[in-house]
Recover the amino acids of this structure.
């Protein structure tokens, strides 16, 4: 079977991700695309670099797909995440969720991106004109006291 | 032997993505104390632990053949 969850150093075509969740019982596909941003709080990014623990990242993406299946009935999810150097506006992550009705599709795609930022071992390095920095903890949550993220964290927001 | 994977800033400081150690029988916490305390890894304690690609606790005892990974706070998406 074709992969529904993958990490790639090649540019991501959003349509490739969408295609994987098209099915006859779906009435909605919600997509989320994360792209490389040039300005963050006025600071100019030249390019981004993403590093992944690829094998584990693909497992964790698949786990997010399972969580979505458990939370919303009859969903199908596909997620692709890029690694390596990304120029401004290149696609970093693409998520597609198909469901029978639109509301679940919106909610589930939002859930997917939030969970990616919690449990998927992928890191972003900012390259600025005057330096570089590996970013961490983008959600600004100190939720790692137990060092093992729980599904429930998402529900506490 | 166990393989230890480093990512992001940890990889930059260690200077390698993967290093093998004689560490079977140690807990992850003991491994850190024994092998990593000489490095200037300011963010090491913020890193989550993964053993064989699953999140695990620092009290887990390492076994021969394990792959231990330090997972700094993630920033994908």
């Amino acid at each position: 079977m074709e992969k529904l969850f993958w990490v790639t150093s090649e540019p991501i075509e959003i349509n490739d991700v969408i295609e994987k969740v098209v099915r006859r019982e779906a009435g909605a596909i919600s997509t989320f695309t994360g792209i490389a941003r040039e300005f963050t709080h006025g600071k100019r990014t030249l390019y981004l670099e993403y590093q992944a623990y690829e094998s584990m990242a693909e497992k964790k993406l698949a786990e997010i797909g399972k969580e979505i299946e458990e939370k919303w009935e009859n969903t199908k999810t596909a997620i692709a995440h890029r690694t390596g150097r990304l120029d401004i506006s290149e696609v970093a992550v693409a998520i597609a969720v198909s469901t029978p009705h639109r509301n679940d599709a919106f909610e589930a795609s939002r859930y997917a991106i939030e969970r990616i930022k919690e449990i998927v071992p992928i890191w972003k390095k900012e390259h600025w004109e005057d330096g570089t920095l590996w970013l961490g903890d983008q959600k600004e949550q100190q939720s790692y006291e137990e060092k093992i993220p729980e599904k429930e964290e998402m529900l506490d927001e | 032997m166990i393989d230890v994977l480093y990512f992001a800033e940890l990889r930059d400081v260690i200077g390698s993505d993967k290093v093998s150690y004689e560490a079977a029988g140690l807990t992850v916490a003991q491994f850190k104390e024994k092998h990593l305390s000489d490095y200037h890894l300011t963010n090491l304690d913020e890193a989550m632990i993964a053993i064989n690609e699953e999140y695990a606790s620092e009290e887990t005892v390492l076994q021969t053949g394990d792959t231990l990974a330090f997972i700094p706070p993630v920033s994908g998406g």
